[in-house]
């Protein structure tokens, strides 16, 4: 039943002459949360940006290897299609400053020229904001600018914006690193809830967070995949010495 | 030793402060003198007739400068029509591909264009448009003014877009929005204030230009909305009327100066307002 929705094989990423991601192979199980951990600069962001092809924005980036989505070559698809199926939430909240909360949630549709009826719009907005645990806080102010919200609320707005597109996979790059503990725990609850319908890949520096929410964890070190295990296993008996050192806080 | 020097230092300090103040005041004097004369001679000329009527022939009193007002609006409109879209697109290009070789040459051209004296730009427009069409025209004036606006708009668009965080562009692209739509529907609206400021600065820069219009738009005593015909403009009218020997015309010249300065002043106020909102 639990098949791999996404599979990375022998992925190498070079930016300019620097070899950043080194021969990584790993699969992602459907409706699981996979945590990607590792010291700063080890290539976590670079790795997950290959999955929705955001690395193509860097002119000097070169990728070898294969990524498959449902068994089909990701790079054979149109990048626009890939990005609609694979949503992304960034490290810093980045709502569109010219748009209201309502329009921010709908941005993926409106910017793509999809026309929706008033009812469909209301439904999508309400649904996405509820899933992102933001509805109660903003339901009376939907037409205010998204940038009036607090940092944590903005991040949840960005999550709602990604969820509104009904992605199959959600990539999250340290989504809680700029947030306080309360907003963080909000988002963690939300991720566990979301797992029912979406496959999640989350980059995090927060070891406790990974252990709380993830099913499996990948540990990257200097661009290499050192260990990829079920979270429970890795956090109790890490196989590699570097993983162990990272988990007890020796670096990063 | 140090103690005995203290009073001297304080004197120096006070003296340099005083000097700076003095020069600031001196600087304001020419402006005050200009404003004084323009208001003194021009304000009295203002009237409904002045704004809505055509100039009268020499000898008759009264008359207005409606043809020059309409002409200036048409010239600035023509100039904006070409230079605002072109400047915005060039600005986007420079901010997006600023490190490529082509972009470096384009930026150099834009900067050089900005430094070219307006009279020379007038000659270029003369050779391009007037000689081609065979006669003076509003269009040639619009081209000359447009060339002067272009660098202002291009450079301010580039600066504005460079200041917009990259994460915003990424947010849009990550939603599967195509690149061109990201630029048009996300980046441009976000930088709208800055771009608008650039456009207004460009307009204020050319609204008072005379030199490039002398042998392009040329001037005309008639009301004209045909852009292939010569057209009057406020600065041209000021130039012609103020240097004429007729007192009636000189009066109109002062009135036109007052009007032009007021228009440009309003534009700067609007620009300030727009900038503050950012
Ligand atoms: N656009 C780029 N141009 C050049 N080098 C880059 C670029 N992006 C990333 N790198 C390099 O790639 C390496 C990995 O960066 P990456 O952002 O993937 O690390 P990370 O694991 O996400 O780190 P952090 O935890 O600090 O976010 C770094 O050494 C960085 O200098
Ligand atoms: Mg990172």
Write the layout of secondary structure elements.
The complex is a heterodimer of chains A (252) and B (278).
Chain A: E1 4-15, E2 18-29, E3 33-37, H1 44-51, E4 61-69, E5 72-73, H2 79-85, E6 86-89, H3 101-110, H4 118-131, H5 135-138, H6 151-164, E7 169-173, H7 181-194, E8 199-203, H8 207-213, E9 216-221, E10 224-230, H9 231-236, H10 241-247
Parallel strand pairs in A: 3-8, 3-9, 6-7, 7-8
Antiparallel strand pairs in A: 1-2, 1-4, 4-5, 9-10
Chain B: H1 2-42, H2 48-52, H3 66-96, H4 101-115, H5 118-133, H6 138-163, H7 166-174, H8 179-190, H9 192-207, H10 234-242, H11 247-277
Bound molecules: adenosine-5'-triphosphate and magnesium ion.
Detailed description of the structure:
The complex is a heterodimer of chains A (252) and B (278). With 252 residues, chain A is an alpha/beta fold. Chain A has helices at 44-51, 79-85, 101-110, 118-131, 135-138, 151-164, 181-194, 207-213, 231-236, 241-247; strands at 4-15, 18-29, 33-37, 61-69, 72-73, 86-89, 169-173, 199-203, 216-221, 224-230. Chain A has a single domain (4-247), classed as Rossmann fold (3-Layer(aba) Sandwich). In chain A, helix 7 (181-194) links the parallel strand 7 and strand 8 (199-203). Chain A is globular and about 55 Å long. With 278 residues, chain B is mainly alpha-helical. Chain B has a single domain (70-219, 227-277), classed as MetI-like fold, CATH 1.10.3720.10. Chain B has helices at residues 2-42, 48-52, 66-96, 101-115, 118-133, 138-163, 166-174, 179-190, 192-207, 234-242, 247-277. Chain B is globular. Chain B has eleven helices and no strands. The longest helix of chain B is centred in the N-terminal third of the chain and has 41 residues, at 2-42. The A-B interface holds A 52, 54, 57, 80-84, 87-88, 90, 92, 94-98, 107-108, 111-113, 158, 161-162, 165 and B 165, 167-168, 170-178, 181-182, 185-186, 189-190, 192. The complex binds adenosine-5'-triphosphate and magnesium ion. Residues 44-45, 173 of chain A line the site of magnesium ion.
